[in-house]
Amino acid sequence: PCDDSLYVDGVDTTYLGKFYYGHEMQRLGMNTVEIDTVNERECKRTVFHKVYVLQCADSVYVDGVDTVYVGSIYYGHEMQRLGMNTVEIDTVNERECKRTVFHKVYVLQCADSVYVDGVDTVYVGSIYYGHEMQRLGMNTVEIDTVNEMGCKRSIFHDVMVLVCDDSIYAEEIDYIHVGEMYYGQNMYLPGLNTVEEEIVNDHGCRKTIFHRVMVLEKEESVEPKDTIDKKDPIVEPVIPEIPETPIVEEEGNKEENEEGEGNKEEDEEGDDVPEIKIPTAFSPYQKDGKNDIFMKGYEVYIYDRYSNLVFHSTNGWDGRSGDKLVNAGVYVYAVKLQTGEIRRGTIEVLKRK
User: Fold this and answer.
1) In degrees, to the nearest 5, what angle opens at C-alpha 137 toward C-alphas 136 and 143?
2) What gap in Å lies between CA 91 and CA 104, rounded to an integer?
3) 303 and 192 Cβ atoms separated by less than 8 Å
């Protein structure tokens, strides 16, 4: 015979309004649910389940108070009202019981600006917090930030922007042999050379260092010669012969000149000729009236390091070759003094500051 009834041991638990084997549970407390079944032999019987029906807690208040900033997102809610707020959050637990959870939230005002004490120092062209600094002097850089609580605010930094010193001239002269490497360059030209070195310091400032190097032939000693001043060397240049300037005399003055030749030696011995000092560098780029003309009032010949004539004049050199200023560097000169003596040496054209 079919056993027409079966009682299941134990008690199941569910919440009010839930479905249990097709039955909507509406009565709180202990319930007995009757379930009709048919087994594989078509034997019909009734199975009885004990079910305890619980009430869903429709609200839960969370202890404590959370703190956020105005405009922050809290459990999907954008917090716009300053002060104490209550945020209502609907939840469903693992038994599909719906309930509301209440959170207390204190909303603070974001500080919209902060001024950093002190002044940072950078060089023009440097990158400071993503900003390329181009204006010299004092600058204020505004940086927008978001803290860990989502609070947006601006931070203001004072920054002093300095100009990079774009050129430095090394005081000492280095001595090497032809063919040796010097700051990445193969030095093959004998004599005094100027080598430019581009550097970037720890502040991101780019500048040029000019090194003077004496390139010697293989058989020459690397020791400086006694006739060369280390601080301001004068190297005997290879200069083509300076042409003599023809003197055209008028017929009427010829006899007077011949008569005066007899007293020429006496006049020269009696004259007190002042010492002529020839500068070692000048700055034609600045045009400020200070040291921007070399040997004004004298006949000068200017040559490059390859002994090519760059300039000739009877009234000094203004740093030009043709209608353009020459590049900074060392040039060879020959100066004809009023006594007829010819002085030779090197003159350095300083770069624009």
Assistant:
1) 90
2) 16
3) no
Tens-level pLDDT at each residue, the chain (353 residues): 666 778 888 898 888 888 899 898 888 889 999 988 887 777 888 889 999 988 877 788 888 999 888 888 899 999 889 899 999 998 887 767 778 889 999 988 877 788 888 999 888 888 899 998 888 889 999 998 887 767 778 899 999 988 776 677 777 888 888 888 888 888 878 888 888 888 776 666 777 888 888 888 776 554 444 333 333 333 444 445 555 443 333 344 444 444 444 444 444 444 555 678 888 888 887 777 788 889 999 999 998 877 788 899 999 999 898 888 888 888 889 999 888 888 888 888 887 55
Does the pTM exceed 0.70?
A: no
| Euclidean distance between CA atoms 25 and 15, whole angstroms | 7
3-state secondary structure 98-137: EEEEEEEEEEECCCCEEEEEEEEEEECCCEECCEECCCCE
Question: 272 CB contacts (<8 Å, ≥6 apart)?
Answer: none
Residue 240, C-beta contacts closer than 8 angstroms, at least 6 positions apart:
307, 309
Q: Rounded CA gap, 7 and 22, in Å?
A: 18
Show Cβ contacts of residue 26 under 8 Å, excluding neighbours closer than 6 positions: 16, 17, 53
Alpha-carbon dihedral of residues 108, 110, 116, 117, nearest 10 degrees? -40
Helices (H), the chain: 254-261, 264-270
